[in-house]
């Protein structure tokens, strides 16, 4: 799961990571693509609509449960671009 530090050093875990009382399916693999990247940037990426996902957010696509691979591929391409 993605843990984010706030300005006052509190660790938060965004609730969109949980679905049906468990970690959102596919999220672990997507987060793995971003290893070493700024965590707040990763969180923003996951919650921003993308043209390659029909203007849905990666979280929305993962919640739908039908295009995990497409989100993972987009995450890997984005992480390479950020490096």
Describe the structure.
With 83 residues, the chain is mainly α. 45% of the residues lie in helices and 10% in strands. It has four helices and four strands, in the order E-E-E-E-H-H-H-H. The protein has helices at 27-33, 39-46, 58-64, 68-82; strands spanning 4-5, 11-12, 18-19, 22-23. A two-stranded antiparallel ribbon has the order 1-2. It has a two-stranded antiparallel sheet with strand order 3-4. Helix 1 runs parallel beside helix 4 (68-82). The model has no long low-confidence stretch (mean pLDDT 94).
Summarize the structure.
With 83 residues, the chain is mainly alpha-helical. The chain is 45% helix and 10% strand. It has helices spanning 27-33, 39-46, 58-64, 68-82; strands at residues 4-5, 11-12, 18-19, 22-23.
Mean pLDDT: 94
Q: How much strand content do the residues show?
A: 5-15%
Please state the overall shape, judged from the principal axes of the Cα atoms: globular
Largest sheet: 2 strands, antiparallel
Sequence stretches where pLDDT stays below 50 over 5 or more residues: none
Main sheet: strand order = 1-2
Rg is 12 Å
Total number of strands: 4
First-residue to last-residue Cα separation: 21 Å
Give descriptors for this structure.
83 residues; mainly alpha; two-stranded antiparallel sheet; two-stranded antiparallel ribbon; 4 strands; 45% helix
Topology:
Layout: E1 4-5, E2 11-12, E3 18-19, E4 22-23, H1 27-33, H2 39-46, H3 58-64, H4 68-82
Antiparallel strand pairs: 1-2, 3-4
Helix pairs in contact: 1-4
